[in-house]
């Protein structure tokens, strides 16, 4: 239960994975990347997230392995701190407070107690490379104010800074300049390319730089697609460079292999190029990576590469140029035309993805589930080409049907319009195209919605268009004589005085259909399609329209472009109330009567949660975002919350998500991400980081349960069994390589003796001395009586002490069998 005043806006996922280069662990088992305010640790083998390193209060801008301890990771952020992590356990070790806004981070093995960061001091567009000394203090938070200047007038991007030849020099590029600083000599060499405006030198701009790990060689990428290899740059006059050219557009990033024998390059062609021995002829390609390559990383072991892409994707690549793993985040499309939807089957967030696709994104796991290709055409990356846009999409209430609209308009009179109906196939577990309608309307489709009432046997779809009509589409028999196929056909066409239809929505029970025609709202009977009534307030064109739900189903709400929010009563056919509000998002909660409205003001975006039947809002939160909020959606909770405060009860059954103009996905929560992790999930995260040996699968998962049982046995049982994991013989057999072990005959006696019960485990207080434990000639009944009598005598000697647990008959039989075993054969060995 959350306390009042604890609900706040939090980033729930969808952050950029391609903001900075990803990093590998020393053994290539893990890959690290920045994700908003967090650093995420993934397994390179399974693609699963092992840890989320949380602690920064602003955007993380750099990560690097600790060169002196490969089990630790450095990270820097805009919050002015450098944090040291133990990524195996997901624990924050230390925080170094620098105080400046940090834009990038670099580490060197030769600089044990220092790291390099990019900061801006005076002017916002002038950046400096400085060295920060990290003191070795035992405290967790340390002031790191000792800063040494290295280079000035550099680019803030870490792709424009590179350290070479084991830290002897650092190279930086910006515009048409290359600067090389030598640490030992403390001198700087500068080289300039021609910046004339003729075609030959128009695109000489530097875009990235990489340094050879063993030799004095610098590789630079340029806007014209060329790669220059610089040598002899320690002399301003004798320097030379050679050119490599394959990319037709700018080179986005460069990286040398660990040994320096290969150079990797990538750009907008979505192709990873490997230049072997820095030769023009020796090239290898990995094509069709899906999107522009933003960053390239190489693992310290040299067996893996990694590329970060513009579609918020990270691809792990083997040394032989074969993709092995893909980590896909929320794809940031240029425009989100479809809005935010929830797939009723997977509870995934659905919206525009890469061009021509719908992406299904898991909010719980912060990863993309899959893409659905709607347009089904090859995408051509040409800036002057007018592409086919996916503009509308809608699900029915069961997730059985999906309706999409795609359009392309090169001229005002040349409109290409298609509507597609997709049916969910249980066998393939995906959507299959069922019906395709060319030109369903004569103008742009402005809205579409399904009738989600359960009483309707046949699914019903309504589309509204600027051509002044709305159309009702019904699922009918579209088969031959066998009647095994169904299809969608137009059942009714409606209009109102040739006004443009802008919005449409069904009531909760499906009995009424509301269609807005500019400033007028019309109400239609869904059974006869007769016009029942109209509402006209002359308050501007209707921008959003929605019905109330549950006890508020008699209300209809509409938001106009002239910043008026109206509520009509369908029983009295009159305006219930209206208010001045610049509504940008109007979203009803499917599980309650609540409606969320987000308005835009000069200070930012504000949230209002209200019920149509009550004049006062339930919850108001100002400045939820400084940006414009474009879309919002309620997501039903799997486990309802239990807020008692009236102001927060709207969060009990559903959670509200919203998308800003910069496509940041935010939500309202009462718990931080650390608090959401239960002890069980934290234990699972820790276990996932352990090496998965065969013995781990046998013993690792149940070790804690075994320890608890053993502790209970020590307190209650008379006889203690030996712990197999502490027996030296077993440890020797399991942990020693087979080729160095002694012979089996030598180990047999030691191994069998270790399994025997030790007499030292039986104390005198627990078992009387006069009990004959070695009697072999007495029968079973006599032994049973004698054993029981002795235990009873022992229990009755001292009533003040704790009662000793009496063995059951089955346990006594097992002990008798164990005593009768003949171990004399061991003496022969």
From TrEMBL:
<dbReference type="GO" id="GO:0006364">
    <property type="term" value="P:rRNA processing"/>
</dbReference>
<keyword id="KW-0805">Transcription regulation</keyword>
<dbReference type="GO" id="GO:0045943">
    <property type="term" value="P:positive regulation of transcription by RNA polymerase I"/>
</dbReference>
<comment type="subunit">
    <text>Component of the proposed t-UTP subcomplex of the ribosomal small subunit (SSU) processome. SSU processome is composed of more than 70 proteins and the RNA chaperone small nucleolar RNA (snoRNA) U3.</text>
</comment>
<dbReference type="InterPro" id="IPR053826">
    <property type="entry name" value="WDR75"/>
</dbReference>
<dbReference type="InterPro" id="IPR057644">
    <property type="entry name" value="Beta-prop_WDR75_2nd"/>
</dbReference>
<dbReference type="Pfam" id="PF23769">
    <property type="entry name" value="Beta-prop_WDR75_2nd"/>
</dbReference>
<dbReference type="InterPro" id="IPR036322">
    <property type="entry name" value="WD40_repeat_dom_sf"/>
</dbReference>
<protein>
    <recommendedName>
        <fullName>WD repeat-containing protein 75</fullName>
    </recommendedName>
</protein>
<keyword id="KW-0698">rRNA processing</keyword>
<keyword id="KW-0690">Ribosome biogenesis</keyword>
<dbReference type="InterPro" id="IPR001680">
    <property type="entry name" value="WD40_rpt"/>
</dbReference>
<comment type="function">
    <text>Ribosome biogenesis factor. Part of the small subunit (SSU) processome, first precursor of the small eukaryotic ribosomal subunit. During the assembly of the SSU processome in the nucleolus, many ribosome biogenesis factors, an RNA chaperone and ribosomal proteins associate with the nascent pre-rRNA and work in concert to generate RNA folding, modifications, rearrangements and cleavage as well as targeted degradation of pre-ribosomal RNA by the RNA exosome. Involved in nucleolar processing of pre-18S ribosomal RNA. Required for optimal pre-ribosomal RNA transcription by RNA polymerase I.</text>
</comment>
<feature type="domain" description="WD repeat-containing protein 75 second beta-propeller">
    <location>
        <begin position="340"/>
        <end position="663"/>
    </location>
</feature>
<dbReference type="InterPro" id="IPR011047">
    <property type="entry name" value="Quinoprotein_ADH-like_sf"/>
</dbReference>
<keyword id="KW-0832">Ubl conjugation</keyword>
<dbReference type="Pfam" id="PF23869">
    <property type="entry name" value="Beta-prop_WDR75_1st"/>
</dbReference>
<keyword id="KW-0853">WD repeat</keyword>
<dbReference type="GO" id="GO:0042274">
    <property type="term" value="P:ribosomal small subunit biogenesis"/>
</dbReference>
<dbReference type="GO" id="GO:0003723">
    <property type="term" value="F:RNA binding"/>
</dbReference>
<dbReference type="InterPro" id="IPR015943">
    <property type="entry name" value="WD40/YVTN_repeat-like_dom_sf"/>
</dbReference>
<feature type="repeat" description="WD">
    <location>
        <begin position="53"/>
        <end position="95"/>
    </location>
</feature>
<dbReference type="GO" id="GO:0032040">
    <property type="term" value="C:small-subunit processome"/>
</dbReference>
<keyword id="KW-1017">Isopeptide bond</keyword>
<feature type="region of interest" description="Disordered">
    <location>
        <begin position="762"/>
        <end position="800"/>
    </location>
</feature>
<keyword id="KW-0804">Transcription</keyword>
<keyword id="KW-0597">Phosphoprotein</keyword>
<keyword id="KW-0677">Repeat</keyword>
<keyword id="KW-0539">Nucleus</keyword>
<dbReference type="GO" id="GO:2000234">
    <property type="term" value="P:positive regulation of rRNA processing"/>
</dbReference>
